[in-house]
Write a structure and sequence with these properties.
The protein is mostly helical. It has helices at about 10-50, 50-75, 80-85, 90-115, 120-135, 145-155, 160-170, 175-205, 210-230, 240-250, 265-270, 270-300, 305-310, 315-335, 340-355, 365-395, 400-430, 435-455. It has a single domain (about 50-455), classed as Growth Hormone, Chain: A. Helix content is about 80%, strand content about 0%. Mean pLDDT is about 80; it is low at about 1-15, about 20-35 and about 250-260.
């Protein structure tokens, strides 16, 4: 039409109009595409804001990952270091014993320090200390210097479990405690799974000394994150009133004691303290043996360092199932009105029976049959560990959890020292068969001892 402005528009103006029309048409579609991702993230952020306690569990999980990564670096490199630094299985057992001895000594101090000065600063200082000790391994010139650096690492790492369980006892109500402790302890599993491929790759391409420097350097990064984001429940600046009520109001059927700390000897004079000490004395050697000797066992079955890097992480998958699975199941029983002590005890008994599978590891003709059996052993041990730590947190006053956990872990370390020294000589003389047979029987004995001690709990405990 002569009066229409359409005929007056230039090609450029018509192109601009088409662009505007396209933008108008596609804008709702773009919003529809973008909005679901934002909407899907919104519930996650809301959950984290209302459940700060699970953020604490996540941080503790990272501590356990790094703790065992630093520890497993030597286990993966055992055969390599024996060849390059010229020592044998007996000297390696001395190195492991040095770590566990210092680990035991650390428990004499860490429980009281954590109970008195709090989790935040004690755990941060311990992380910096053990990361520095881990990096010193790169300067080792023989098995003696390696043992010295290993002892320093063990002393620092002894703080991790008592501090972690102490933090969980302060932040987590009983109905969630089994799972949260399982998540915390399963950090050790992930560290053990990461170590074989990571250490093997670093060693094959840049040398074994870099492996120790790398894992140690990560510790300084984690320490800065911990100091920035961890708070005690009473000091947390963004804790919602609803969650603060959950965290501060729960009781575990205990009357809090006036004394905030107890020495290991004071705890050991109590029947319950003796029971936890002996239970861990008998069962921790299993996890120490599997962690420190599994790569050497696999090499004795014909695997090279490269093959160990490919398969040594597989047995730890069992612990990934056993720890959280056992924690979830015992929490489920608690929510079904089981007493927490009874729920944890039942799962520990099942775990003890499962650990009899260790008898069959050496009877498997092929290594590919032994690995699933070892994975089942890891699953049972992880389930036992998660429920035992939860049992401690629910059997003693919260102000004394650090001391009780430290004492029981001391028992585990003493048992680990003796097992390491004996294992080195037994393996050198008779092979791995006697060791696997022995460790299969220990959990049932430990359960019997612990069951007797639990009967002595008085109402005030």
């Amino acid at each position: 039409m002569p009066g229409s402005t359409a005929y007056l528009r230039t090609p450029r103006s018509r192109g601009a109009e088409r662009a505007r029309n396209d933008a108008t048409i596609h804008a709702p579609l773009a919003g529809a595409v973008a909005s679901p991702s934002k909407a899907s993230l919104r519930p996650v952020g809301e959950f984290l804001r209302q459940h700060r306690r699970w953020g604490v569990v996540g941080l503790l999980f990272l501590f356990s990952v790094l703790n065992n990564l630093d520890r497993q670096t030597l286990a993966v490199l055992a055969a390599t270091l024996q060849a390059q630094l010229r020592f044998g299985p007996i000297e390696y057992s001395y190195i492991v014993a040095a770590f566990l001895t210092a680990y035991s000594i650390g428990y004499f101090f860490c429980g009281r320090l954590i109970d008195r000065f709090g989790v935040k600063w004690c755990l941060a200082a311990a992380l910096v200390f053990w990361s520095t000790a881990g990096m010193l391994h790169a300067a080792a010139a023989g098995w003696v210097t390696l043992a010295v650096f290993r002892a320093l690492l063990g002393f620092g790492e002894s703080f991790n479990v008592p501090a972690g369980v102490k933090a969980i006892s302060e932040w987590i109500p009983p109905r969630e405690r089994g799972l949260s402790i399982a998540v915390f302890t399963n950090g050790y599993v992930l560290g053990a799974m990461i170590a074989p491929p990571a250490v093997a790759v670093l060693t094959l391409y840049v040398g074994w000394r870099i492996s120790f420097l790398f894992s140690g350097a990560v510790g300084f990064v984690l320490a800065s994150i911990w100091l920035r984001f961890y708070y005690a429940p009473s000091d947390h600046p963004t804790l919602t009133p609803e969650e603060r009520k959950i965290v501060t109001d729960f009781k575990v059927g205990q009357i809090e004691q006036a004394a905030a700390t107890s020495s290991p000897w004071q705890v050991l004079r109590q029947p319950l303290g003796i029971g936890f000490f002996l239970a861990q004395f008998l069962t921790d050697p299993i996890s120490f043996f599997l962690n420190f000797w599994l790569p050497s066992y696999l090499q004795s079955r014909g695997l090279t360092l490269g093959m160990i890097g490919l398969v040594a992480w597989i047995p730890f998958l069992g612990a990934d199932v056993g720890g959280p699975g056992g924690g979830l199941l015992s929490d489920w029983l608690v929510r079904r009105n089981w007493k927490p002590v009874e729920a944890r005890s039942v799962l520990m008994l099942v775990s003890a029976v499962m650990m009899l599978l260790a008898n069959f590891v050496m009877y498997a003709d092929a290594i590919w049959l032994s690995i699933p059996l070892i994975a089942a052993l890891f699953a049972a041990q992880s389930c036992w560990k998660a429920n035992q730590l939860a049992l401690i947190a629910e059997s003693v006053p919260r102000v004394r959890v650090g001391s009780f956990v430290a004492l029981s872990a001391l028992g585990g370390s003493v048992g680990g020292v003796l097992t390491s020294l004996l294992s080195g000589r037994v393996i050198a003389a008779y092979g791995y068969m006697p060791v696997f047979v022995t460790i299969s029987c220990l959990p049932l004995v430990a359960f019997s001892v612990l069951l007797i001690s639990l009967r002595t709990i008085r109402p005030k405990m």
